[in-house]
Amino acid sequence: MPSKEIMNSDEMSRTLNRIVYQILENMKDTGEVCLVGIRRGGAHLADRLNEIFKSEGKPDIRVGYLDITLYRDDLTSIADYPVLQGTEINFDVIGKHIILVDDVIFTGRTTRAAIDALIDLGRPQKISLAVFIDRGHRELPVQPDFVGKYVPTSRDEIIEVALKEQAGSDYVRIINK
């Protein structure tokens, strides 16, 4: 499968900074803001965003991780025995402004599953969505509030966001199926 790198580590770092600045511009008070990364890639990105918030003088943003496996609408087609990665949210979501963090938004189905999983934990005051890459092709009426980069794709392409925490290095590639 031919692929093309569209972002390197430095570009990814600048993009994460851009997302933080978008959030800061739209938030008057970050006191009730919590980042919740969607497992897997979104969890690592939430940690990175939190580090940038700290460097910007916002050290009190809480971070959690959400496993949406059992909320997926394609659960029966992904595996007979899906692997659960575990939800780790060590704070009460009730009344908080939750920013869901994911690496790529495509159809919107992952976001829908994440909202369902989050609501089962309590009723946040607000839920926003921050994505690293928006590739289009929505099947549900879901739009991110904060976007690192828009990458128009065809349905015959895949966006691969590699993170050093998982893959050993940072890059984003478009892969032709």
TrEMBL record:
It is an enzyme of class 2 (transferase). One of its GO terms (molecular function) is uracil phosphoribosyltransferase activity. A motif (PRPP-binding) lies at residues 98-110. Signal peptide: none annotated. It catalyses: UMP + diphosphate = 5-phospho-alpha-D-ribose 1-diphosphate + uracil. The keyword Transcription regulation applies. InterPro entries: PRTase-like, PRTase_dom, PyrR, PyrR_bifunctional. Its EC number is 2.4.2.9. One of its GO terms (biological process) is regulation of DNA-templated transcription. Keywords: Glycosyltransferase, Transcription, Transcription regulation, Transferase. Residues 4-145 form the Phosphoribosyltransferase domain. NCBIfam families: PRK05205.1-5. Belongs to the purine/pyrimidine phosphoribosyltransferase family. PyrR subfamily. PANTHER family: BIFUNCTIONAL PROTEIN PYRR. This is Bifunctional protein PyrR. The gene is pyrR.
